[in-house]
Amino acid sequence: MLSPYPAVGFHFLVNFMGIPGFLFDTKFMEVTGLTAELEHEPLIEAGNNRFTHKLPTRTKFGNLVLKRGVPALGLSPLVAWATAAIYFMEFLPIEVQVILLNENHIPLKAWNFTKAYPVKIDYTGLNARENQIVIETLELAYQFATPLSL
């Protein structure tokens, strides 16, 4: 039965397909960058100064940004993959899936990101006066995104 309530954004999976020894990771606290925008080119019609035509050209995608607490067990395969690309220019583009789940762990909506690769890794500042978790932010660029039908 379909729920009459809107989906909540705190129950999701992030799957990485193509990192050796690493299949999926569900331990992210935030995923942003799920954007797609149709770019357009203005066309001015001769003799008509009231408006311009907007012709669609291509779809533009934002970078996928993933945030989580730094794992206490050391270097994960995901961070090793990102480090190889960012520090040593060793790129291994992969498929990434983001899947929104309902309260029964059933997928509601999903996106596939093709040929994703890391472009930025960031850690929150270290501060001895505060008792906060260190947050790791991984930013991925990709060739294109596709919403998946479920």
From TrEMBL:
InterPro entries: CHP02241 (IPR011747), Phage_T4_Gp19 (IPR010667). GO terms for molecular function: structural molecule activity. NCBIfam families: conserved hypothetical phage tail region protein (TIGR02241). This is Phage tail protein. The lineage of its organism: Bacteria, Pseudomonadati, Bacteroidota, Cytophagia, Cytophagales.
